[in-house]
Amino acid sequence: MIFRQICSEKEGSLAYILGDPITREAVVIDVAETHLAAVEEFLRSRGLYLRLILVTHWNVSHEKAAETLREHWGARLAAHESIVAASVDMRIRDEDVLYFGEESLRVFHTPGLTPCALMYAWNDRLFTGETILVRGLHPKLRRQAKARLLARLHTLLEHFPEETLLYPGAENQGRRLSSIEEFRRRSQLGTDRKSTRLNSSHDQIS
Fold this sequence. Notes:
Layout: E1 2-7, E2 14-19, E3 25-29, H1 36-45, E4 49-54, H2 60-73, E5 76-80, E6 90-92, E7 97-100, E8 103-109, E9 118-122, E10 125-129, H3 143-157, E11 165-168, E12 178-179, H4 180-187, E13 204-205
Parallel strand pairs: 3-4, 4-5, 5-6, 7-13, 10-11
Antiparallel strand pairs: 1-2, 2-3, 7-8, 8-9, 9-10, 11-12
C-alpha cells in the first residue's frame, strides 16, 4: 500500500494520502489549503491518479482545497450526506464502502463536534479527523454531545483490534497518531466482547 501523512507546520493540521500500488489510484483525506503543495508533489512523484477527495468534517479550507484538486486532477469530492454545498460530488453515509483501485475504505458517521463528522477505516488504521484526537475527544465537546459520541464509539470500536492505529486531524505536542487501546485507557471506554473485524458486505460506491 501507499500511505503518506502530511502535517501543516503553520497550523498543525494533518492530511492523508492513500494509494493503490497496482492501479495507482489514490484518495486524500482532510486536505486543507496549507497542505496542497505537499499533497500534489507526492501524487506526482509517485505517479498517482487522484480519484476521491474525502473529508472527516466540513470547513472552508477543505472546500477550497478540494476545488483546486478537482480542477488539477479531475477527482470527486465526497462528504457526509447532510452537507448541501454544491461543490460536493458524492454524498456518503454510515457504512458505505469506497473503492480506489484494488483498495477500499469504510465510512463511519460519528456526529459529535459537528453533525457531519465521519471516520474512515482502511486496513489497520482509522482516520478520525476531529472525532478522536491524539489525547482523546475534542475538548470543545459539550456534555450531551460527548456522551452520545462515547456511546457511538463504544459500539463502533468493539469491532476493531486494540492495536488499530488512530490517525487524527491534528497533531498534539508533536504526536500524530495513537491507538484504540490508548484511547480506551484515556477515555475509560470499555468493551463488552472480544474485538472482531468488520467484514460484512456493503454496496459499492463508484
